[in-house]
Specification:
The protein has 15 helices and eight strands. The chain is of the alpha/beta class. It has two domains: about 180 residues, NAD(P)-binding Rossmann-like Domain (Rossmann fold, 3-Layer(aba) Sandwich); about 150 residues, N-(1-d-carboxylethyl)-l-norvaline Dehydrogenase, domain 2 (Orthogonal Bundle). An eight-stranded mixed beta sheet has the order 3-2-1-4-5-6-7-8, sandwiched between helices. Helix 4 links the parallel strand 4 and strand 5. Helix 8 crosses helix 13, helix 13 crosses helix 14 and helix 14 packs antiparallel against helix 15.
Length: about 325
């Protein structure tokens, strides 16, 4: 049994805390909302994020970051990308020992263009980081809490650390593979949210299965082109954290990014969509970063570019799709290079 802290009591952080608690670990779930911690401890529910789920009695929550950090030398970071640096800054006062960090968020920071592991490395002193492991893959929290079979990947340059995380989480319904391709895993997890927004827009426009299949396939080509240019293993993008995560995020009503895109496709403005969602839609922020990366590395990413125009320059979705369809003709396989 291990002492484990999970930072972030959203749907995914809570689902992972449930897995850890059910695996017998002494799990402490941190939330910055006092009332949410009280609800989890007294009612064993988290109605805002997982309304139909009863939490294990041995899962404890706290709103004290100091208590959360002192609890364990294994910290699962499950806060949105935009909150990573703020949470790291607040942690600094309490970090007195080496910590194995496991991050489960999926995003890229605009402007700095850093992956989350890079943000953690920059924001935290090197002498308190034992290792940083990325945990990613096709995984809806709503299905994990129902014990539906789920398979994901732990990525770290240090295989021993990846295997430790594998052992922490793995059980009969939650399978974990390992890899050393941190770059590929992080990019696949982040960039699939961009394509999921586009898939939602396509569905909102009632363009059907042909269009969505094309978006998923050509979207994977974009992700792979950029990922390989940035040092990722090309095989990673056809695996769980690439193709797998892309499929689940582009085709499910559980996907926030698909739902947000769907509303955009039906004519709703971005500000109204985000207000109605009530939860972080990582793909919006990541679209800006992905567009910036495509410019920096001179990698053609036409779907990402079209989505950037829709989100940030108010281009009509139908016009953006029409322009994608009439681009210059080219070979398919050569275009994957």
């Amino acid at each position: 049994m291990e002492n484990v802290t999970v930072l972030g009591a959203g749907s995914w952080g809570t689902a992972l805390a449930i897995v850890l608690a059910e695996n017998g670990h002494n799990t402490l779930l941190w939330t910055h909302r006092v009332e949410q911690a009280v609800e989890i401890n007294e009612q064993h529910t988290n109605h805002k994020y997982l309304p139909e789920t009863n939490l294990p009695n041995n899962l404890v929550a706290t709103s004290s970051l100091e208590e959360a950090i002192y609890h364990s030398n294994i910290v699962v970071v499950a806060v949105p990308t935009k909150a990573i640096r703020e949470v790291c800054e607040k942690m600094l006062a309490f970090l007195e020992k080496k910590v194995l960090f496991v991050h489960v968020s999926k995003g890229i920071e605009p402007n700095s263009l850093m992956r989350i592991s890079e943000m953690l490395q920059e924001s935290l002193p090197s002498d308190v980081i034992e290792e940083i492991v990325v945990l990613s893959g096709p995984s809806h929290a709503e299905e994990v809490v129902l014990h539906h079979p789920t398979t994901i990947t732990a990525a770290c340059n240090n295989f021993a650390a990846a295997e430790k995380v594998q052992d922490l989480f793995m059980n009969q319904y939650f399978r974990v593979y390992t890899t050393d391709d941190v770059v590929g895993v992080e990019l696949g997890g982040a960039l699939k949210n961009v394509i999921a927004l586009a898939a939602g827009i396509s569905d909102g426009l009632n363009y059907g299965d042909n269009a969505k299949a094309a978006l998923i396939t050509r979207g994977l080509a974009e992700i792979t082109r950029l990922g390989v240019k940035m040092g990722g293993n090309p095989f990673t993008f056809s695996g769980l954290t690439g193709m797998g995560d892309l499929i689940v995020t582009c085709t499910s009503v559980h996907s926030r990014n698909w739902r947000a895109g769907n509303m955009l496709g039906k004519g709703m403005k971005l500000e109204k969509v985000l207000e109605q969602m009530g939860m972080v839609v990582e793909g919006v922020r990541t679209t800006k970063a992905a567009y910036q990366l495509s410019q920096k590395y001179e990698v053609p990413m036409p779907i990402t570019t079209a989505l950037y125009e829709i989100l940030f320059n108010e281009k009509e979705p139908k016009i953006a799709v029409d322009e994608l369809m009439i681009r210059m003709k080219k070979r398919e396989i050569d275009d994957l290079q």
